[in-house]
What does this fold into?
Amino acid sequence: MARSAPAFVAVFLLVSALLSIGAAQLQPPSGPPTDPSDAAALHAVFRQWSLESEVAGKDPCQNPVWNESLARNASVHCDCPSGVGVCRITHLNVTGYKNITKIPLELFNLTELVSLDLSNNNLNGSIPPGVSNLSKLEIWHFNNNNLSGSFPHELSLLRNLKSLWMFDNYIEGLVPEFIQNLTKLTDLRIYGTKIQGPIPRNLSILTNLEILMLGDLEGNPSYFDVIGEWSNLTMLSLRKCRLTGQLPSTPRNLPKLNYLDLTSNNLSGSIIQLLPYKNSSFIYVGENNFSERLPPEIVRPSLSLDVSYNHFVNGSLSNIPADQKWPINYIGTSVDASGIVDSRSLAILNCLRMKECNNSSLTNPGTSFAINCGGKQIDYPDLMQTVFSEDSTDLGGAGFHISTTSNWVVSRVDSDPFNKSSIVNISDNILATNMQELYKTARTSTSSLRYYMVGLANGKYVVQLFFAEIVITEGLGRRLFDIDIQGHNIKKDFDITNEAGGFGKATNITQDVTVYNSILEIHLYWSGRGTCCIPYKGAYGPLVSAIAVTRSVDPKVSPPEAPRSNSGRQDEKRRGVIAGIAALCIAAALISSSVVYLWWKWVSIVKRPVA
Ligand SMILES: *[C@@H]1O[C@H](CO)[C@@H](O)[C@H](O)[C@H]1NC(C)=O
Ligand SMILES: *[C@@H]1O[C@H](CO)[C@@H](O)[C@H](O)[C@H]1NC(C)=O
Ligand SMILES: *[C@@H]1O[C@H](CO)[C@@H](O)[C@H](O)[C@H]1NC(C)=O
Ligand SMILES: *[C@@H]1O[C@H](CO)[C@@H](O)[C@H](O)[C@H]1NC(C)=O
Ligand SMILES: *[C@@H]1O[C@H](CO)[C@@H](O)[C@H](O)[C@H]1NC(C)=O
Ligand SMILES: *[C@@H]1O[C@H](CO)[C@@H](O)[C@H](O)[C@H]1NC(C)=O
Ligand SMILES: *[C@@H]1O[C@H](CO)[C@@H](O)[C@H](O)[C@H]1NC(C)=O
Ligand SMILES: *[C@@H]1O[C@H](CO)[C@@H](O)[C@H](O)[C@H]1NC(C)=O
Ligand SMILES: *[C@@H]1O[C@H](CO)[C@@H](O)[C@H](O)[C@H]1NC(C)=O
Ligand SMILES: *[C@@H]1O[C@H](CO)[C@@H](O)[C@H](O)[C@H]1NC(C)=O
It folds into this structure.
């Protein structure tokens, strides 16, 4: 024991020496200290956000910042110009902290900030006016929070802003006129808020714009002339902005445009006006009032094209080879598809467009339907009476699929240039269900997903929708979407994870509906809310695992014929009762009179005197 002591001491000394060398190497290279005012402000801010332990007593520009995960981030970057002797904090990125709820006023002492990213926290209340102090800001992202109050007027003083993201908040008021003064803007994203239109016309002078995404604007209508000659614009998204009127007769020159989304506005005039943008990769103009002939030059395999629900758009798709699936959605238009779909599909398309399905071949005797959205056919004979049919056609950036055997249709449109994946799957087990496989695949869309059942007998049905979140498996992402059935909203900001109590867990919705014109429509759609990019870009919008539709069994709840007024039905019942009573009376009279007759006859026979 005693003999080994010197050796032990030697090893100990060697290890400590090595450790101290290692520690010395881990020290950051010494440089100028952080400006005291910046350091004090940052410490005050981090203390209020309960992040202080990480920087307590340290110089913020001298110490490495930490990165906890891709989605959660707290980082500081400094500018340390040589010869000045101090570093200034220029970049602050604190994102993905659900317990950060306030903007501390000390933040506005960081007057050298160039980039401030506070997205995907839980900030609430209104934006403090002190933000006008941050006049050097070029990037300000505060999307995916709960901020409210009016559109911050102080923004007008941030003349260096290039990138402003404020989507998914509760901010209200009009889109302010002063936005035109922010002439350096290259990337502006305002949607999923309570901000109202109109879009100021002088937005057109923001010639540096590269990405413009405005959406979900209630209020007064806007006009397409807000668009300027934006030579660097690559992405233009004006979904649900109440854009009205026609596209300008002199088309805007947007030479770099790759993505155009004008979905769900009130634009009219000839669809030919879109021709100047035909070299884009995405054109989404569904749910408008465009008319006339779809220019054949615009229909190309490399363009995701959505013209759906423009009733008066016509023309033909004769340039699409019969065996090809090009990414185009023309459901709800007058486009002649006879060259590329079979006659039964044509009849179904016509039924959807005209909302009348008189063609007797469409009458579907089935009383129940089920679809395994995004997956293969599945049968649960012990649990469900209906087989879930296969729905695994990849619909790309825009498209639809008609199941000719069972008369259902899925129609899909995207709203995101980054990811076109329409079908997702997971191999992990799903919790809270005994129908595992049903939830392991799902259909998604970043904009709109519609399912139709065609040729149903009119009457009452029960719709079941099956959900499990299998994409946003990190707690920091949030998927929100809306659900309409038969044109009535049944869920707003539906959150699968929240309803199910966790990701990878099943949850269902059951809804009674009435079918009047032999069509049942289920519409799942995005309204600008939720996170955009966790765990990857384009991970947002509706997701559905399966759908089942069953005829209501109770005959009292489910009249087989088209509904009529209650009073009519009661009249009929009363008439029936009266008729019944009358019939009984007649029967009774007949019986009693025959009894009387027989008795009389019998008496007369019996009593006849024997001759
Ligand atoms: C906020 O969350 C972070 C990370 O999850 C944690 O370190 C911190 O203690 C939390 N703060 C409060 C006040 O709960
Ligand atoms: C802030 O950090 C997040 C997560 O690392 C990153 O995705 C984001 O781009 C950063 N923001 C800026 C403005 O660089
Ligand atoms: C901002 O810094 C100044 C000194 O430059 C200090 O007097 C003031 O208290 C600070 N304000 C806040 C809100 O921290
Ligand atoms: C704005 O910055 C100045 C220092 O430049 C500071 O004195 C003032 O307190 C700041 N205002 C707010 C509201 O933080
Ligand atoms: C467009 O982008 C190029 C290169 O990034 C730049 O030099 C030019 O100034 C931009 N033009 C406009 C009008 O913003
Ligand atoms: C849609 O535009 C037409 C004119 O093009 C107008 O008459 C109509 O009122 C608009 N509808 C809505 C809902 O704004
Ligand atoms: C398309 O509709 C226009 C009217 O909007 C009509 O003049 C034209 O003949 C139609 N074209 C076809 C091919 O049906
Ligand atoms: C189809 O039926 C509807 C009523 O459901 C009727 O209004 C329409 O005229 C019929 N159309 C044809 C082509 O028979
Ligand atoms: C799951 O998705 C991947 C690609 O996203 C695909 O390669 C795989 O075949 C899918 N698995 C199933 C069972 O659908
Ligand atoms: C697109 O989605 C798939 C999952 O369907 C994902 O694996 C991939 O990373 C996404 N691509 C991008 C560019 O985000």
